[in-house]
Amino acid sequence: MALDFTFTEEQIMLEDQVYRWASTWLEPQMEHMYEEDKMPPEIFKELGNLGVNGIVFPEKYGGAALGYVETLLVYETIARVSNALSMTVGASQTLCFDNFRRNATEAQREYVLPKACSGEWIGCLGITEPNAGSDAMSMSTKAEKKGDKWVINGAKTFITNAPVAQFMTFYAKTDPAAGPKGISAFCFEFDKVKGCRVDKIKKWGMRTSPTGLVTFEDMELPEENLIGGLNKGVAILTSGLCTERITLSGCTLGGQRACLEISLKYAKERVQFGKPIASFQMIQEKLANMYCGYKAGKWLAYSAAAYCDTLEHKSGGKGTDLDRMAAASLLYTGEMGTKIGLDAIQIHGGYGYCTEYAISRHFLDQKLWEIGAGTSEIRRTIIARELMRDDFKSGL
Ligand SMILES: Cc1cc2nc3c(=O)[nH]c(=O)nc-3n(C[C@H](O)[C@H](O)[C@H](O)COP(=O)(O)OP(=O)(O)OC[C@H]3O[C@@H](n4cnc5c(N)ncnc54)[C@H](O)[C@@H]3O)c2cc1C
User: Fold this and answer.
1) Where are the beta strands (DSSP E) in 190-284?
2) Could you tell me the distance, in angstroms and rounded to a whole number, from the CA of residue 23 to the centre of ligand 1?
3) Active site annotation includes 217
4) Cα–Cα dist 60/249, whole Å
5) Cys-Cys crosslink for 341: which of 233, 318, 365, 366, Cβ 3.0 to 4.6 Å?
6) Does any ligand 1 atom lie closer than 6 A to the CB of residue 128?
């Protein structure tokens, strides 16, 4: 059995480089930005300069030609400083641009991907609608062909980055009578369309990561803005969700690591009853539980990413082992993130309840990971469905 739970020298260098940037450039802005709910405007250009925007994209588009393990590592490392901004980066680079890359034509890739890699463009992905969340296939946004144009009507909600994005990919019904088999994927540039409105949504967590409601009213798109073929949307959507769930596990993991590191330091420094609180066994129990939860989730996520990197097409979807592994990765890390965040606040006592302490942000951001990218309940449903598959053989 060849099990080597270590990172390569190159991966360690990548982690060090991203952490150095996050702790020196990002961290000093976080308290103010979180209060104001503002994304640092230059963040994607900064990441472009670091060379970590298009991590899995081929070098000819400006990408780093690395894998999903490295993507997860970069998202985890950014999230050690900001879970929310790591989500914003993931929503642009993995949900939007990577999904686009897998399904677009070469001409579309050549036009879009270099701008994603440089950080000139920020992307967003629209699946969720006001009345279609977990039941995404019941979406009602429609794309009707009129002459050589698509006319789009409907709305997408909770869309990460929509208020700041230049580019959007989304799904719409192109044959409503065909149900899930009548869904197609589209893309557009915000400044090239009319009939699209974005309203920012206020949130109590994941502040700094902009979220929006996108409304389409007779928005016209040229024919070529259809991605991956007519009525092929479901396969695109479900296969993209696997890499999304795996790599976004890094957001909660980085937040968990921050909770543990900050709590450990605080527990050693904070003195009550004449002793550091770290000497009390009830505090030690929390620290030990936080460590175990973080480490267990970490290897669940990285093993799913490593498995994904071995696949020829690096995609999953219904009926694949990757579907189960990806759902398990975000289910476990997401639920652990809330527990670890709560323990971290408890260790900090009243100071944990004050916004000037970074720990409050790390805690507030964690709960999202039981909801976003398909809720815990939906992830359990997927895992159970895949375990009960007739041809399910191994993988345990
Ligand atoms: C900050 C944030 C960022 C987001 N970013 C994006 C984005 O970039 N793009 C995008 O498309 N979406 C995004 N989302 C949407 C997110 O994916 C949805 O919120 C999520 O899929 C749940 O949908 P819903 O909120 O409509 O909840 P609902 O589907 O209405 O669910 C409500 C509750 O019912 C439960 N439930 C529903 N169906 C079942 C079932 N069959 N069995 C058991 N329980 C069930 C759910 O688990 C949940 O607990 C984001 C959401 C948030 C909050």
Assistant:
1) 196-200, 211-222, 226-227, 271-272, 275-276
2) 32
3) no
4) 28
5) 366
6) yes
Question: In the CATH scheme, what is the code of domain 9-122?
Answer: 1.10.540.10
CATH class of residue range 234-387: mainly alpha
Enumerate the CATH 1.20.140.10 domain ranges in the chain, comma separated. Answer: 234-387
Cα of 261 to ligand 1 centre, how many Å? 30
Domain(s) of CATH 1.10.540.10: residues in the chain: 9-122
Q: Whose CA is nearest to atom 24 of ligand 1?
A: 133
CA distance 39 to 31: 12
Kindly report the CATH number that applies to the domain delimited by 125-227: 2.40.110.10
Q: At 198, is the secondary structure helix, strand, or coil?
A: strand
pLDDT score of 310: 94
In this prediction the pTM is 0.97
Contact 185, 95 (CB under 8 A): no
Can you give the pLDDT at residue 396?
Answer: 64
Residue 88 Cα, ligand 1 centroid: separation in angstroms? 17
Low-confidence stretches of the chain (pLDDT < 50) are: 1
H/E stretch holding 154 reads: strand 149-160
Q: Are 128 and 159 spatial neighbours (Cβ–Cβ below 8 Å)?
A: yes
- Can you tell me the distance from the alpha carbon of 175 to that of 145, in angstroms, rounded to the nearest whole number? 10
Tokens encoding 74? 């970069």
Half-sphere exposure of 230 (CA within 13 A, CB side): 10
Confidence at residue 2, expressed as pLDDT on a 0 to 100 scale: 56
CATH 2.40.110.10 domain locations along the chain:
125-227
pLDDT confidence of residue 359: 97
